[in-house]
Each structure stands twice: as C-alpha cells, then as structure tokens.
Write a structure and sequence with these properties.
Layout (H helix, E strand, L loop, with lengths): L1 H8 L8 H30 L2 H27 L14 H29 L8 H28 L2 H30 L4 H28 L5 H12 L6 E9 L5 E10 L4 H17 L5 E9 L4 H15 L6 E10 L2 E10 L7 H13 L5 E9 L1
Parallel strand pairs: 2-3, 5-6
Antiparallel strand pairs: 1-2, 4-5
Helix pairs in contact: 2-3, 2-5, 3-4, 3-6, 3-7, 4-6, 4-7, 5-6, 6-7, 8-9
Length: 383
C-alpha cells in the first residue's frame, strides 16, 4: 500500500525531495485521521462512552498534527536565503514540538473528563458494531504507523518518526477503549471512566516523549558517533595528520550538518602543503555526504623537541589516571626570559567529577614537580 501511494503521489521517486514525501505523508495522515474521527465521534455520541470520545478527539488532534506537518515540510523545504543562510530545516523540528504540545493539552482535558466519569458514570449503549469500528480503527492506525516509519527512514525525518510512534500509541489507546466496550457488553461492568483515564495518561506520556525527540535537535545533541568515526577515518588516511580532536557538529535541519574540527600536523610542513592536505579532507567529507559543510583548523605540532615530547607524554599519562578518556592537544612549550611557558588544550569528559579549575590545579601540581618558575595557559574542553 505504501509503495502504491508513493507511485501515485511521487512522480520521480528516485529524485524526489524530502518535501514531496512530507506532503504525501501529511495528506495521507489528514484523510485517515478525519475518517477515524468521524466514525469515533458518532460511535461515542451513540454509546455515550467517554473513552471512545477521548480517542476521537485524539484522532482529531492527529489530523491537526498532519496539517501542521504538511505546513512544516512546505516551509522547511524552502531554499537558503540571506536571512537564513543554512536553510529552513529546523522548522520541521518546531512543527513536531507544536504537534506534541497540542497532543498533551488535549489529553489533559480528556483526563479531567475521564476522572469525572469515574465518580459520575454515564449509561453506555454499546454493541458488536462498536467493537467492529474500534477494531477497524486499530488496524488502520497500525498501517499508518508502518507507513510513517517507512517514510521516516526514506527521508531521515525525526518529526515523521514521532508521528509513527504516535500512531502506534493510538493503537494502544483505542485498544483500551475496545477492552472497556467488551467488558461492558459481555460482563455489564462500566469501566469507561477508568479506560478514558488510562487512554489520556498514555497519550500524555507519548506526547512528552515526542516533544523530547523533536526539541532535542534544536537544543543541540551530542555528535553522532558514526559521523565522527567517518570523519576520523578520512582524516587518518593522510600520514601528515598526527591527531584529530574537537569535532563539532551543528544540525540546521535534516540533511544540513555543518562540522568543524582540529587536526594536528608537523610544524615542518609548509603552509601550502598543510593546506593541500586539509583541502583534500574537506572535499572528501562533503563529496561522501558525511556532512554538508566542514571547516578544519590546523594545530602545528613540534616533533623534534625531546623535552617537550617527554613532558607531554608524562602529563598525558598522569591525567589519564583520573580518566582514560582524557587527552592533551596542541601542546606547546615556549622557552624565554628564564621561564617556561606551557600552552595546550586538555579534553576531559563531562562525567569527570572535577571542575575546570580543579583540573588546572592538578596539572599545576604535576608541572611543579619539575619546574619551579613557569607560566601555564590551559584550555579545558568538555566532551
């Protein structure tokens, strides 16, 4: 069915844009959720079941969400301009967050109504037709979840994956309403209020999870390990690269990632030679579509000062006693005016239970074992 819809809506699926798939998914979502809403509202009014009415409102909010998704994909698909040089891709994340917030707001109101029905239950008029309608709703929502998941993987969309998760959640909420109807029909027990409360709580939980998923890229997430490894592998193919560190990734929307990092290279290389190496690395990274744009900073490394190399190694091993992941970069030792000056960066994990000042104090203590009069400029980077 998914492939059939793609064939109908997408004329050239091999070259289709994310925007085209997003629009298709939005239209499918609007149609399916409006159909479900209509059936469940009628069923809820006829039977008087708040759990079914709650589920109908949930489907209505999904229809509104699909409209928001449609608008979001249209805006996020706009090309970069002077005011937005990195495009409009983050609008997709904002849209996803708005959808999640709307779902949570609706669910809270449904929870209030369900609690009221627990203490003041209504008479229900359910039948086998009610069971058939709810069972059909579950099957349709299950298909929608599979549909959204496939589209999400095709275009790498977190907002679309959040919609797929929401559809799976709807299967559960409708299932709870179905169970309450079955209990009423076969056992004469009215548990509609409790079922409505369970549905509402589950929808609230799903909304919170979706909100976290869509807002995380806007706040900024830890770099993707696969991207980091790919960048490192390309850089290390060049024998001139002695080390790579401070890799930064900034996502401006799906498919728009800007990266920067430092490479250590022998100071004996000419400016032209060093430029040729980093230029080749940048070209390879963008051509292989690992990131969209990359900038590399060169750290020259002195490779023939034995005292400096020995001290760097000793200091590195000493700091690794605190945490094996600690590393030292861009280490320089400047002689002059009877004093030694040490300039370097030290990368420490966020989990290290020490402040930056405490890290610097530990380094000072180590250097003080060998040098009595020196200056130190240390930058502590967290990763």
């Amino acid at each position: 069915m998914t492939e059939l819809l793609i064939k109908i809506f997408i004329k050239d699926k091999d070259n289709a844009s994310r925007h085209s798939y997003g629009v298709m998914a939005g239209i499918v979502g609007i149609c399916c959720n409006l159909i479900l809403t209509a059936f469940k509202i009628v069923t809820g009014l006829v039977t008087g079941a708040v759990s079914i009415a709650s589920d109908a409102v949930n489907n209505l909010s999904d229809a509104v969400s699909s409209i928001a998704t449609l608008i979001g994909f249209r805006i996020s698909g706009k090309p970069a301009d002077r005011e937005h040089p990195y495009g409009h891709g983050r609008v997709e994340y904002v849209t996803g967050f708005i959808i999640a917030a709307a779902v949570i707001a609706v669910a809270i109101n449904l929870l209030k109504e369900s609690l009221h029905n627990i203490f003041y239950p209504k008479e229900l008029d359910v039948s086998y037709t009610t069971i058939i309608i709810l069972s059909g709703s579950i099957l349709l929502k299950l298909w929608m979840s599979i549909f959204y998941t496939k589209i999400s993987k095709k275009i790498s969309s977190k907002a679309m994956m959040a919609t797929a998760i929401d559809s799976r959640s709807d299967c559960i909420t409708t299932g709870v309403a179905l169970i309450s109807v079955i209990i009423m029909l076969f056992f004469g027990k009215n548990v509609d209020g409790y079922a409505g409360a369970i549905v509402s709580l589950f929808v609230i939980y799903s909304g919170i999870e979706s909100a976290k998923e869509t807002i995380a890229p806007i706040i900024g997430e830890a770099p993707d390990k696969e991207i980091i490894e790919s960048i490192e592998n390309i850089a290390k193919e060049h024998p001139e690269i002695l080390g790579i560190h401070d890799i930064r990734l900034h996502e401006y929307g799906p498919g728009m990632i800007v990266s920067s990092f430092h490479v250590e290279m022998p100071y004996t290389l000419s400016l032209v030679e060093a430029h040729e190496v980093v230029d080749d690395i940048e070209r390879r990274i963008t051509e292989e579509k690992i990131v969209t744009e990359v900038t590399i900073h060169i750290d020259p490394v002195i490779t023939d000062d034995e005292e400096m190399l020995r001290l760097r190694e000793e200091l590195s091993q000493y700091m690794k006693k605190l945490d094996e992941r600690i590393s030292i970069h861009d280490f320089r030792m400047i002689h002059g005016n009877g004093k030694e000056r040490f300039i370097f960066d030290i990368a420490v994990p966020y989990e290290l239970n020490k402040t930056d000042d405490e890290v610097k104090r530990i380094i000072n203590e180590k250097l003080g074992e060998t040098y009595t009069d020196y200056l130190m400029t240390v930058t502590v980077d967290r990763f």
